[in-house]
Amino acid sequence: MCGIIGYIGKRNAFPILRNGLAKLEYRGYDSAGIAILSEELCIQKDVGKLQEIQFEEFEGPIGIAHVRWATHGRVSKENAHPHSDCHNEIVIVHNGIIENYRELKAKLMGKGHVFRSETDSEVVPHLIEEFTAEGFSFEEAVIHALRMLEGSYTILALKRGEQKIAGARKGSRSLTLGISDDGFLPASDVLAFLEWTNKVVYLKSEDVFFADAARGLRIYNLAEDRFVKRPVDRVKCSAEGVERGEFEHLMLKEISEQDETILRALQQDEEVIQGICDKMHHAIGTFFVGCGSSYHACLAGSYMFSKTAKLHVNVALASEFEHYEHFLTDKTLVFAVSQSGETADVLDAVSAAKRRGSTVVGIVNRDGSILARESDSQLFMNSGPEICVLSTKTYTSQVVLMDLLAYALAGKYEEGLKKIGGLYLDIYNLTSRSMRDYLARLARMLRDTRDIYLIGRGAQYATALEAALKIKEVSYIHAEAFAGGEIKHGTLALIEDEVPCIVFVSNGNKNKILSNAEELKSRGGYIIGVSPENEAIFDHWIKVPDAEELNPIIQIIPMQVLAYQLAVYKGLDPDKPRNLAKCVTVT
Ligand code: F6R
Predict the structure, then answer these.
(1) Cα–Cα distance between 112 and 586 in angstroms, integer?
(2) In a shared domain, residues 409 and 447
(3) Measuring from atom 6 of ligand 1, which residue has the nearest CA?
(4) Whose Cα sits closest to atom 11 in ligand 1?
């Protein structure tokens, strides 16, 4: 989940790398580091967010850089990247996991190598060192070293005296090479270099590249054991939209964009939508898989498929999908839902589906991501870059896409477009200053609470789960969601006087959920209703328009705002919650 970037070219590498790291920081902000190569090799790294680290500007035309989300080894300066060999001659940055690092480290230590960190990554420079000491060139040593690594990774490496960057990608991590007029920019994400170029080479698994000031770019594939050619593509997404603008935080900006992003999600080719519907009609078994918010969107969608399209779909957490794999055949349709298109659990599910000959449809935001490239067909969310670690606008876009599919399956494509598009103004109002102020007052009241419980029924159960996730991850308040009918089966024991309970109410179907709210209230619960009507049972009312079956798109929005305000009142950074990263590339 770390982010890596490199530069080799005619310019000074430092500002390009420093800037690129800022664009990658959503992938990890435990520590950051930069290595610049000129006559000398200068390595700087420290713990903390990028803006907290004072890097000295060091001149040189070649460099690599890293932002870390700790997996192996705690957050410390020693564990920050870049990592180097015993003599500070070879330096690397790494994203991913080297599964056999313990064994490799023991062997290397047995040969006298001195390790300075607890990371799996540090074996790489020592392995390269070992092979160069045996007389291999830097390029050969990199290839030999990579052949010894098990796991999935992206790596960039430099060696003092070599005017080149070596790099590699294996497994589900993404590494894209930007090609600008004056040089090469390998990075985990095209966003890191889009201001310089949109010309890219997507590296395939087991590709090793050498970007050389003199010899240009060469790519060697470890599996094929030969040099290969890869096409040069142009990326469509732009670096626009990654600035905060007039907003205090990206989270608030991204929440506020949803009036437009739902419209952009609707900009689909009708033929593609109808083609996918056709596949759904003919499939023997349809699965929707995702993680976190994307999973919640799948769950919300499953109710819509059931009610509006009268079609059963299976919903699975991508990390649990292996337990369903034996159901997959060449007649199964698997929807892989992922904002980033790089979530390792989702990509594993895609690989499983492909192994069994199933068809994969990617519902994805990032063009050029692995999911976008590896799925058989794609529906793009068109949300623009989402940088805040929390999913907000991409969650609603995912639900929009599934709802649109459900309408199309029911032969109501045009009606669907109209109904969903008609939410534009409601969403605008829900993110308006007055609504934000209203929710800020509620947040002030709730900021010291220990627990919040949330209930919903049907698709609104998914809304409750998603709202709980938003509150937890950004405000660190314990929030737990239940299907309304479930609380009496145990959780009611936790309800005491004044415990906040958020209840999602839809006009068409409110009796049962209001009875569940009664159950909470009679044990002392403080009832916050998210509802088109003010009900007598509510202690606090969050007024939302009635969007009927589309309520999941509408009702999550005040919850996103509430979660944001809770974080702000608690003095937390909503864009970078502790322990999290935007793109989860570990399984
Ligand atoms: C929550 C959140 C995460 C992601 C999850 C899947 O706010 O952002 O739960 O939804 O990590 O990410 P993608 O959609 O990129 O696969």
Answers:
(1) 31
(2) no
(3) 291
(4) 292
583 φ, ψ (degrees, to nearest 5): -120, 110
Residue type, 401: L
- What is the domain-level CATH number for residue 145? 3.60.20.10
Number of domains in the chain: 3
Q: Are residues 251 and 207 in the same domain?
A: no
The residue whose CA is least distant from atom 3 of ligand 1 is: 292
Q: Which CATH number belongs to the domain containing residue 319 in this structure?
A: 3.40.50.10490
Identify whether 584 is part of a domain: no
Indicate whether residue 294 lines ligand 1 (CB < 6 A): yes
H/E stretch holding 314 reads strand 314-317
What's this model's pTM, rounded to 2 decimal places? 0.81
- Same domain membership, residue 83 and residue 187: yes
Q: Answer yes or no: is the C-beta of 340 below 6 A from any ligand 1 atom.
A: yes
Ligand 1 lined by 119 (C-beta under 6 Å): no
292 lines ligand 1 (CB under 6 A): yes
Statement to judge: residues 216 and 147 lie in one domain: yes
* Inside any domain, residue 239: no
Residue 504 domain-assigned? yes
User: Tens digit of pLDDT for each residue in 494-530?
Assistant: 999 999 999 999 998 899 999 999 999 999 999 999 9
Higher pLDDT, 70 or 417: 417
CB count within 10 Å of CB 340 equals 24
Asked whether 369 lines ligand 1 (CB < 6 A), one says no
DSSP 376-398: SEEEE-------SSS-SHHHHHH
Catalytic positions, written as ranges: 2, 582
Domain range holding 366? 244-422
Q: Which atom of ligand 1 is nearest to the CA of 392?
A: 7
Which of 406, 386, 335 is closest to 560 using CA atoms? 386
Ligand 1 centroid to residue 496 C-alpha, Å? 32
Ligand 1: centre distance to CA 337 (Å): 10
Per residue in 448-497, pLDDT tens? 999 999 999 999 999 999 999 999 999 999 999 999 999 999 999 999 99
